[in-house]
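Go through this:
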Amino acid sequence: MSDTVNWAGREFSVHQQTADWNDVEGVYIFSVLNSQNRWVAIYVGQTDSFRNRIPRHEAWNPAVQMGATHVHATVVPQVVERDRLERSLIATYQPPLNVQLRQTYPNRA
């Protein structure tokens, strides 16, 4: 398995949910490899601290029930850029656990 993966033109690092998370800002994706060996987004979110958010995330258990095995993360210091990337990923990949934001940012394709 690769240590990085590309989502919508941006490189994300691949982690276990139990990883030793850094206290930095960014966007993350709870994901699973499908039968075609392609990553599928189950949940997309953003945080001002991976260390504070990921280990106790309320969507992790529901994501695991849907097959999630890994967290993909990318550091994004600017909140405006985090907002833009999160919206874009949700609109593009329609993760099933982002029900509220999927309705707010429908796929424009």
